[in-house]
Write the structure tokens for this entry.
Amino acid sequence: MLPAVMIQPYQPGRMASTVRLARPPSITAAAILLGLAGLTGCGEAQPASRPNVILITLDTVRADFLSCYGSTNGATPAVDQLAAAGTLFEDAASSSGLTPASHATILTGKFQYNHGLRVLAAGSGYKLDPDNETLTTAFKAAGYRTAAIHSAFPVSAFFGFDEGFDTFESFDATLKKKKNDTKVGWDVRSYQRRSDETTRMAKQWLAAAADSDQPFFLWLHYWDPHDPVKLPDTEDFERLRYDPGTGELQDQQTVEYAVEVRYQDENLKALLDAIDEAGLADETLVALTADHGQGLADGMRKHRWGMHRMLYREQTHVPLIVRGPGVPAGARVRDQVRTADLAPTLLDYAGLGGFTEPVDGVSLRPWIDGGGRGDLTAYGEQINGYDHNAGMRKFRPDAAFLYMVSDGEWKLIYKPHMPSESELFHVGIDPLEERNVIASNPEVVKDLLSDLAERNPWVTAPFPVTGAGDSGAGADALSSLGYSAADVEGSGDWWWTCPEHTGVRAERRGRCEVDGCERIMISMGRWSE
């Protein structure tokens, strides 16, 4: 087995570069390993015919800022190159506008109500439980070498993302509170790195991995467009700022965002070149997606919000591209899919079949092979009301609790604490979600609410404080900042009602009994800071 490579951190600030042993595999995983040992000889690495897998997650990148998705804000030739050599999904939906929650869905194939990571800061609910099977633990159990190289704190071990990695190059930070502020956050300036440094570290790791017959799983996370804290150097910024496309932009936020997307793309080009130069391209699956998008100026115009933590198209429409052995080149899939489908897809193409337990996502191989299975129903949520990091709810109290479901033709954003502010978009004819048509489509609303009711995703109380033994120490960190639940959480008065007979008010979730309705009840209530 190739020895682990220790990567020297470049970014100033306290870092976590670790080489760790995975937790003991489950009985199922152990059986897989024993079976493989019987095929290859006890203790030997997996055959080289099993593909390597590289997962690239771009933080805060909207699909429509990539030229292969029709961007008019400057070219992104590296992502275009990846798409031309693989299959691009035109309508991929994220499950959250929050980095940790969305990444947990990408890695597990589960939606938040099943994997349990739903907020960034609270007494609990911010950390991925190690009992969740992930891409990493599945590949580790199958004999893969596993590594991660990250660009910011929100995908660190604090949130439980280190499980199963041999090498985990990430950031070790703590929560803090700004003076005279109620929002819990982290030092964004110190605990992020630019894409050029992430790529440099990835190239170093790949050069070493190329000398081994053991297949690997590598997760790379890029951060640049999330914020303007670490912009490209002045020369690069000006060069990218005035290239065709970006020169037409006016507002500073969108200019900086577009430039960082394009700068990141240049570093992705260096990464793809390194994969080719190492002779890994023909035996490596590469998947690229994003955790969520960003509102920007057009989001402010359409939906009164220019950032993330919402569930409009600006936040949920993300890129999804897969390239590698068995994946047709230059193909495009129009049907709606979900980022939850990526993990099952990669396990399928790697020859592992899938997870050992049921998940929400499905393998997209039938869509890639041209079978045309149709739209998949997308789910999303924002539990901003019980998230200590969600200071935005002061400006958008209607966004304290958001539950989204979309069948590809219609998209509902249900706000149980302000049901009259809920929104329905006919995305089949209004893909930019500019017209709320909830009042004129009551039957569609009932059906989509029934879908949510079946899922039972509701959060109707603050996340309980976990014990001091929690390795994430989130509760302890909040306590050390002088917080109590009453300081940062609003009060909610919740009950249950029927999607069709909203006058019903029950204390427990069950089925409606009005006129033999039998619909499962949904959450409704009042909430205030």
Remarks:
- Confidence is low (pLDDT under 50) at residues 1-48, 468-473.
